[in-house]
Structure formats: C-alpha cells, structure tokens
Amino acid sequence: MRTPKKLTPSQAERIKEKFPEHPLYQACQAAFRHFMAEMHSFDFTSEDLFVAAAYVIDDIAEEPLDAPDYIDGLWDDLKIELKRLSKSAPPQEDLNTVCSVLLCVVAATFRLQWNEHYNETIVGRLHDVIRMNGTPVYEKDLDDTINRICEHADALDKWINDYTSYSIDWLSQTIDAVIVSCGKVIPLNDEKTFVESPATFRKCGTLVDANLTLLYQQLQKKKWIAQDTTPDEFIDLFSGRSSYVKIYWMRSAGALRDLFKSIIDEGLIVCPDGIGYQRILSSHFVTPDGKHILNLNKTYKGKKIAVEIAELMKLLKTVVSGKDVEDV
C-alpha cells in the first residue's frame, strides 16, 4: 500500500502549481469544498486528498485482479495512517468522513472506466466498504454527488480510461517527484540517473535450463511476458554472461520484483558482485512501450499474485529433465 502523506505548505503549493488542470485534482477540489471545507478539527487539505486518492488508484490499477482483497483492508489501513499523520487526535466522525470522501473519489473515478471489472466489481467493493464503515450523512451516493459537482467529469472519464489502458508512468511517481523537489527525500528510480548494465543472473543450486524453460512456458501462458520472447532470450538472463537482451514484461513492476526476489531467496540464482538484482531487472525488462521498469522498490502483497508466484516457484525447485519440458 502506498501510504498517504501530510504535505507541508510548500509541498501543497507545488502540487497546486503542477496539477491545476488534472481532472483527478479538480474532482478532489470539488469533493473537498462540498464535504470537508468546514471540518476544522482535522488538518487535511484538498492537496492531501488528491495525493491519497492517486496512491489508492495506482495501488488498484497496478494489480486490478487483486483489488478486492486490497480494498477489504483499505479502510482500517487508511484510518491508521490518517490518525498517525494528524497533529491532534481527530474525532472518529471526521476520520470516517475523510475515508468516505477519499474512497468515493476513487469510486467515482473508476465508475467512469469502461472495463466491467473496474466499473462493477471494484466500484461495488468500494461502496460496500463505505457503507459498512462510513458516516451515513449523505442522502445519495457520494460518487454520484462528486461527479455532479465536478465541472470536468468528461475529462475525468477520458483520463481514467487512457490511464488504466495505456499508461505505465504512475501518477503517484509524478507526485513523489514533485514532493522531492520541495526538499523531502523520497527514494526514486529516475530515468535520468539509471545506468543500464549487461550483467545477468547466475544459476546455482539445483536450477537447470529445463526448470527455466518450464518457467518461460508458464510466463507466456499467463501472458506475463510478450509472446514473441524466445526461450533462448529468457534463459540468457540466467547465464551469468553479459547480455543486452530485452524482455517485454506485461504485468506490474511489483510482480516482477516479487518473482525474482523469491527466486533469489530460494538460493537458485545469484547476482554478480557489486550489481543489485533490481538493476539487472531494470536493464533487461521493459514495459510494453519499451521503457525501463524502474519502480522496483514496492512489494505487492496481493493474495492472487502471491499464489501464482508460489506455483511458479514449484517449477524451479522440481528436479526435471528435458523430457519433462513441452516443445516450445
């Protein structure tokens, strides 16, 4: 979970300068004015609301199939973080109001997404969480009200559909970069400072090419890697030799990180001296539009992805021979 932040006045001002025309920022401003402007017991601004909403949207968009599990625990996680960020002890009613408005901004945004999983499953789960935990002070659905008071709902519609369909650059990363520019130190992987390395992993333990071929087959079957990836290209990443092979990764950065971290933790591959595994991954795995995958600091802990990785790990820990591998 990307945790909310309490922005300093200078950070809030920079957010305001950077995103004045962003449809999500405008929706958050409209929601804040309508529901939270008179809430004086909790120092929470429209810019804080925008940052928190962007973080939740990115968490969901990064692993949409695991989103229901994530949403189920979101209310309690948000309340804990908001209480921690507050300088005082805000009343429970105000905490519930902030959580309600925040999640309804997210629901209002995803309701405009054309994909059925987003506009039905995810929005429905968000509504359930709000109904179970929120303050029942509104006559109509908050997300409907937010869409009506937002003057740019059409722009929000276009943004969320383009964003979830094509974007690889997370809004949360752009926001973090703006915060960094105000002097707050946040570790970021930056395209400007990234240096590509030809280094690859080296097999060790019981891992052999037959295991890697099975892994390759499953990654293609699950559409985690591009279909035009060859077995030789994939296995080359585990040769211990210099290589400039590039593999198009179709899942999230978190899934890539967690998969290879699991392989390393099992003692099946090692990195060359002085080269971290994240740099190797960023050098050889690229997004569908050809960009280096740099946001590898986040571990995604969705239940579904964890189960899938556990199944993939079985392929690498099983003693196999060539006859166990399907023709590819």
Structure in words:
By secondary structure, the chain is mainly alpha-helical. It folds into 2 domains: 9-180, no CATH class; 202-324, no CATH class. The chain contains 15 helices and 4 strands. The strands form 2 sheets. Strands 1-3 form a two-stranded antiparallel ribbon. Helix 2 runs antiparallel to helix 6 (92-111). The longest helix is centred in the first third of the chain and has 20 residues, at 92-111. It is elongated and about 65 Å long. The model is unreliable at 184-192 (pLDDT under 50).
List the SSEs and their pairings:
Blueprint: H1 9-18, H2 23-35, H3 46-62, H4 67-72, H5 74-85, H6 92-111, H7 116-133, H8 142-149, H9 153-166, H10 171-180, E1 202-203, H11 209-221, H12 231-236, E2 247-248, H13 253-265, E3 269-270, H14 277-284, E4 285-286, H15 303-317
Parallel strand pairs: 2-4
Antiparallel strand pairs: 1-3
